[in-house]
């Protein structure tokens, strides 16, 4: 029993909030499998998607249990909130919960009360991320300046140097708290399809569209900061190069959200019965065209970010298109925990492309959705294997079980 206790403590101590991203990736992969674009393998994919859903439930429970065990005191939580490299993963926690709600909707759409109760909990999670977690990120440099200036006195040149030092540490992963609102918006728009009452449907349309608005407008502020950092200090290096995919999540879920909200708005007009059928047909076309236009705009930028992300990884790991060194990294890394950062963003593009295909029946979007879908499935499965092999401290656990405690200290 003592050895078991020590093994659990070893796992808790080695835990990092970064692993919340794993449940995001597995969660969205299960949803893609359950709604796979290719009809011939749809039934088989649905079955595998359900398996991934239950795997994701286990990952969510383990993740949050380990987090609570490690950060079980208020001072520890407070410390995390003032560490940007850790606090950003609260956004990943929120989005992992969202993927679970979406899959529950696909499996049991008649569980309306449970689904909407969970969604409103997730709504407050997303609001906390965008309002408070993002503010903690914004206030972090100010806290550092105040502390240093109180201790050392105020020097303008030092202040400028400190600003540059902080900006150099900013990565695209800092967008995670912002992505939560667009993900929750898309989820709310998705589950609104089971609402019968016109008043509640209108309320959901307004709330989800406001979440969408907050996500897009705030990303207009923060994405330029990310690229300012890249132009000033260079591309994210090696492991961090996978974070180049994070902004794709805003684009993919933003496009998905606006399409679903377009459909919900048309359904609301039908329920309200405020226009005749001829007018409704015209309004239907106008709303869908506008939604498609915005969604394709986001999709285009998402594809661009995908290419830039792939080129960034190539730059550091294979030395191309780097013009100065043939090879930047001597040791080949087959897996790194930050590889999880590619899973969820790719999944959002797959879902957005599939929804555009359903609305337009243009085969190209189905192909695009399939490409991204297969990519997500492969990367997620590989990341799950990598996490089991490399993240769990097997050597330390073996030493504890074998009784060699000195080596574990």
TrEMBL record:
Localisation per UniProt entry: Cell membrane
Membrane topology (UniProt): Multi-pass membrane protein
Pfam families the UniProt entry points to: SLAC1 (PF03595)
A molecular function (GO) term: sulfite transmembrane transporter activity
GO annotations of cellular component type: plasma membrane
TM annotation in the entry: 20-38, 50-68, 88-107, 119-140, 174-195, 202-227, 242-263, 292-318, 338-357, 369-392
Alphabetized UniProt keyword annotations: Cell membrane, Membrane, Transmembrane, Transmembrane helix, Transport
InterPro entries: SLAC1/Mae1/Ssu1/TehA, Sulfite_efflux_TDT, Voltage-dep_anion_channel_sf
Superkingdom to which the source organism belongs: Eukaryota
Family of the protein in this entry: Belongs to the tellurite-resistance/dicarboxylate transporter (TDT) family.
Protein name per its UniProtKB record: Ssu1 protein
Source organism of this protein record: Pichia kluyveri (Yeast)
């Amino acid at each position: 029993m003592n050895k078991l206790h020590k093994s659990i403590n070893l796992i808790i101590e080695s835990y990092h909030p970064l692993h919340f991203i794993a449940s995001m990736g597995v969660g969205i992969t299960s949803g893609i499998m359950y709604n796979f674009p290719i009809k011939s393998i749809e039934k088989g994919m649905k079955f595998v998607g359900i398996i991934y859903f239950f795997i994701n439930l286990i990952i969510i429970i383990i993740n949050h249990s380990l987090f609570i065990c490690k950060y079980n005191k208020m001072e520890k939580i407070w410390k995390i909130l003032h560490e940007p490299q850790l606090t950003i993963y609260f956004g990943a926690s929120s989005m992992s919960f969202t993927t679970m709600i979406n899959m529950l909707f696909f499996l049991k759409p008649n569980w309306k009360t449970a689904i909407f109760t969970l969604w409103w909990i997730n709504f407050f999670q997303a609001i906390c991320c965008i309002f408070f977690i993002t503010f903690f990120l914004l206030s972090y440099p100010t806290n550092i300046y105040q502390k240093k200036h109180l201790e050392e006195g105020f020097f303008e040149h030092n202040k400028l140097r400190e600003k540059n030092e902080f900006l150099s540490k900013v990565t695209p992963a800092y967008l995670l708290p912002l992505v939560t609102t667009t993900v929750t918006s898309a989820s709310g728009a998705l589950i609104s399809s089971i609402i019968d009452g016109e008043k509640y449907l209108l309320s959901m349309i307004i709330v989800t569209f406001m979440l969408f608005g907050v996500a897009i407008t705030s990303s207009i502020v923060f994405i330029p900061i990310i690229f300012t950092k890249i132009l000033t200090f260079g591309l994210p290096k090696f492991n961090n190069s996978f974070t180049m995919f994070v902004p794709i999540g805003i684009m993919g879920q933003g496009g998905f959200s606006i399409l679903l909200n377009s459909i919900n708005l048309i359904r609301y007009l039908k329920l309200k019965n405020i226009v005749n059928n001829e007018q409704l047909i015209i309004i239907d076309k106008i709303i869908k065209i506008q939604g498609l236009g915005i969604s394709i705009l986001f999709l285009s930028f998402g594809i661009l970010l995908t290419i830039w992300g792939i080129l960034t990884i190539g730059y550091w790991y294979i030395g191309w298109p780097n013009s100065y060194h043939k090879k930047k990294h001597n040791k080949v890394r087959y897996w790194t925990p930050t590889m999880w950062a590619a899973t969820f963003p790719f999944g959002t593009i797959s879902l957005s492309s599939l929804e555009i295909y359903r609305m337009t029946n243009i085969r190209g979007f189905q192909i695009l959705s399939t490409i991204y879908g297969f990519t997500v499935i492969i990367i997620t499965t590989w990341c799950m294997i990598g996490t089991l092999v490399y993240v769990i401290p097997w050597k330390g656990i073996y030493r504890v079980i074998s009784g060699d405690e000195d080596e574990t200290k």
